[in-house]
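Deliverable D2.4 — example input (structure tokens):
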């Protein structure tokens, strides 16, 4: 942004919006530098909005903070103007919410699969234990029968 454009945006537009439109709040953001300013109508003109401890500006009209977020969005890495709620949590974009939901769904599906696998393994082990118990029971019966036969033959 050139110096003349910056002067117009910052100085002239602030005066214009406060006098002509009486816009309650006016925010100005330079994406190249990440500079953010905000003004609130008071009396006959705007007064600067003081930033929070995190450098964000509270908008009474939006009920949210405006602030600069640095990261990748839409495939581009810039300082971006973003919203934060009253508790200081970043308001997610539609794409970010969808990604979180996909991730949560994938985790839940993986958990279900792990539980299913564990249940199947437990069932298989229980089946093996039943089969072993039946085999041992049959062996015991065979040995008892063999012992009875020996006793009968000994008499």
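Example output (designed residues):
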């Amino acid at each position: 942004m050139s110096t003349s454009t910056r002067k117009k945006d910052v100085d002239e537009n602030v005066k214009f919006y406060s006098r002509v439109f009486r816009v309650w709040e006016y925010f100005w953001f330079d994406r190249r530098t990440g500079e953010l300013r905000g003004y609130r109508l008071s009396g006959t003109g705007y007064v600067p909005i003081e930033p929070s401890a995190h450098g964000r500006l509270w908008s009474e009209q939006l009920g949210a903070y405006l602030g600069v977020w640095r990261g990748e969005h839409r495939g581009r890495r810039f300082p971006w103007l973003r919203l934060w709620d009253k508790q200081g949590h970043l308001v997610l974009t539609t794409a970010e919410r969808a990604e979180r939901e996909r991730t949560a769904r994938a985790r839940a599906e993986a958990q279900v699969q792990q539980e299913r696998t564990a249940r199947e393994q437990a069932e298989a082990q229980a089946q093996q234990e039943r089969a072993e118990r039946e085999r041992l029971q049959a062996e015991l019966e065979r040995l008892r029968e063999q012992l009875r036969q020996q006793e009968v033959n000994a008499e």
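The mean pLDDT is 90.
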